[in-house]
Amino acid sequence: MSKRAIVTGVTGQDGSYLVELLLQKDYEVIGVTRRLSTPNMQRIQHLRDRIQLRSADLLDQASLLDLVADVRPHEVYNLAAMSFVPASWEQPLLTGEFNAQGVTRLFEAIRRVDTSIRVYQASSSEMFGKVRATPQTEETPFHPRSPYGVSKVFAHYMTVNYRESYDLFAVSGILFNHESPRRGLEFVTRKVTDGVARIKLGLGKRLSLGNLNACRDWGFAGDYVRAMWAMLQQDSPNDYVVATGVSSSVEELVQIAFGHVGLDWQDYVDTDPNLLRPAEVDHLIGDASKARAQLGWQPTVDFKGLITMMVDADLHRLQCEPLATDNEPV
Length: 330
Ligand code: NAP
Ligand code: G4F
Hints:
Blueprint: E1 4-8, H1 13-24, E2 28-33, E3 52-55, H2 61-71, E4 75-78, H3 85-90, H4 92-113, E5 118-124, H5 147-166, E6 169-175, E7 178-179, H6 188-200, E8 207-209, E9 215-216, E10 219-220, H7 221-231, E11 240-242, E12 248-249, H8 250-260, E13 269-271, H9 289-295, H10 303-320
Parallel strand pairs: 1-2, 1-4, 2-3, 4-5, 5-6, 6-11, 7-10, 8-13
Antiparallel strand pairs: 9-12
Helix pairs in contact: 1-7, 2-4, 4-5, 6-8, 6-10, 8-10
The structure holds NADP nicotinamide-adenine-dinucleotide phosphate and ligand G4F.
């Protein structure tokens, strides 16, 4: 009998890669969407006839309860969130409603329907923030630096609490930044690769960025969803850091991206103080030894491979569709 999984955030970057993985593994997949005035299905268009879509919202307890009660899944992957850090300063309360209380609502729905359902919570390296140790592991204390980071710390501890209080198989995947050609255009990697492709094709002239010194441990989203799945297949629930163990600066990112198309970044990049954050996370680098040892997980794409893959995908997309403003579906 095939397993049944609910994926919240199915229209997002990670949702689309996770669904592909689950379908390869013969899962019946139920993707959760929320009502929008304009449908946002670009990333899962190629999967639409192989999954079911159900409407529910992290803000609405009844919708989550109905979802879990009707579907009776074996596994739930909670990827839905307000995921853009700068927006969390503009809407801190809404960020908390989605990312913190929204997770509590989902856990309440699950525990009321069936405590044997396994749950993955999408936690984040943003929880480490102003880092207390380098590299960061599952044991590193948190010091979040944005309402987003704070909301994810709340959800992380709710995951631990539902595990300890109700014996739920609930895991927190502490994932470092992961990117792909399906990354939203507002995140720095995709902003750069899209900007480089536009400049190369004569569709743009310059690129404005914020802090070029910030460093992140960047990996490929397609690799990271394998770790999510593996966490729910273990004998007991545990929390895991997922990272490449290599940290690069935003400046290195622009060097690689412009260099890939034969341009010198210094001729095209401006820095804009309006893009600096009220509090920055300066340097993240993860130690995924536990995931490597217990899940048998390892990344397959390095930083340069990731950025050149994204530049090539944006060049291709813009050559096919020069007026494109949104994400490339696949
Ligand atoms: P993403 O592309 O921004 O996708 C977010 C998803 O959440 C979208 O499908 C969005 O739906 C959905 N969503 C937002 N608010 C919702 C609500 N109130 N009810 C139901 N669905 C809602 O994010 P991602 O990069 O795939 O990340 C997936 C998860 O991993 C997020 O929780 C993120 O915080 C976390 N994470 C990401 C990274 C990373 O580097 N990518 C690292 C660590 C943790 P719409 O399409 O309707 O907006
Ligand atoms: O690409 P970013 O916006 O990602 P950030 O803030 O690290 O968050 C992402 O990764 C987290 C995991 O650690 C996720 F939890 C979260 O949901 C999201 O997916 O910014 C990366 C760095 C920052 O230090 C930022 O200050 O790039 C710097 N940056 C410099 N110029 C910029 C820009 N970021 C953006 N978005 N746009 C700029 O122009």
